[in-house]
């Protein structure tokens, strides 16, 4: 392949346990996640594409990470719960290679480009890991991934309680109430909410992965900014709602919600995740 500004190099649904209960008369559920007493999970973001020949290896790596295969190597002493929270963003710039990634989005390409700039890189490529918004590296480097998670700065998880509602068959409403468990100064922080899907299987008849059956977990389908907060005490309650339009074939049993705090440079300062209730 000729030199380009882009290159292709070569499960557990929630990082916290959840409980849910139905609300009489409404298609809704309240979920309270177990909040770790100490530091919360490290956010691992993977920028990937079904059109990239080496991305499936990275996707397999995050699936193993999500189901706990490496917990013994990355969990800090005295830690509880999953040490990592995973989000996979499928970019769209490989679609020209003959296979249009059904989960690819220009929105995720824009997010990856923002990290390229923030981390002083000059090449956009897949697969690419970004850990806690502070370091990046090639997406099939298992040893580097585990080392980066161990060495990443960690922060308390927010203590949100989530209410999930389906106002219509095409929409999902996620209401979060709770404390961030960290002080926010005047520079502010964005509270982001991602809706992701597990257990995706795709027959790929064209492109660099022609003839392969591709398996994908933690694939981000929607991402919204819940709100921006400034000058906030650690125990101050935040209460906001995110609205999502769901896709055809939406199955809540395969989906989860990831909440994370990020600053203007996309550095991560806290994470919390919820498994969607089956009945929602």
TrEMBL record:
Annotated TM spans: none
Pfam families recorded: DUF1223
SUPFAM superfamilies cross-referenced by the UniProt entry: Thioredoxin-like
Recorded superkingdom: Eukaryota
Official protein name in the record: Thioredoxin-like fold domain-containing protein
Species assigned in the record: Brassica cretica (Mustard)
């Amino acid at each position: 392949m000729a030199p380009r500004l882009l290159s292709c190099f070569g499960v557990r649904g929630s990082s916290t346990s959840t409980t849910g209960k139905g609300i009489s008369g409404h298609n809704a559920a309240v979920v309270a996640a177990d909040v770790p007493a100490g530091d919360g999970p490290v956010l691992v973001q993977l920028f990937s594409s079904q059109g990239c020949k080496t991305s499936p290896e990275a996707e397999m790596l995050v699936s193993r990470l999500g189901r706990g295969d490496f917990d013994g190597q990355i969990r800090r002493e005295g830690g509880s719960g999953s040490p990592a929270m995973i989000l996979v963003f499928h970019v769209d710039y490989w679609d020209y290679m003959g296979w249009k990634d059904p989960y690819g989005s220009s929105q995720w390409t824009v997010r990856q480009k923002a990290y390229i700039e923030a981390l002083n890189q000059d090449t956009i490529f897949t697969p690419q890991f970004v850990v806690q918004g502070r370091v990046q590296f090639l997406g099939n480097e298992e040893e580097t991934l585990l080392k980066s998670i161990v060495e990443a700065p960690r922060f308390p998880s927010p203590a949100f309680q989530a209410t999930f509602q389906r106002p219509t068959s095409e929409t999902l409403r996620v209401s979060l109430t709770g404390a961030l468990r960290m002080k926010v100064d005047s520079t502010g922080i964005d509270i982001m909410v991602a809706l992701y899907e597990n257990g995706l299987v795709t027959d790929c008849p064209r492109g660099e992965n022609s003839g392969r059956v591709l398996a994908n977990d933690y694939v981000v389908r929607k991402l919204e900014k819940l709100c921006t907060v400034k000058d906030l005490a650690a125990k101050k309650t935040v209460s906001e709602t995110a609205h999502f339009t769901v896709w055809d074939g939406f199955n809540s049993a395969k989906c989860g919600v990831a909440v994370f705090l990020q600053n203007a440079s996309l550095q991560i300062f806290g994470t919390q995740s919820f498994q969607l209730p089956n009945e929602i």
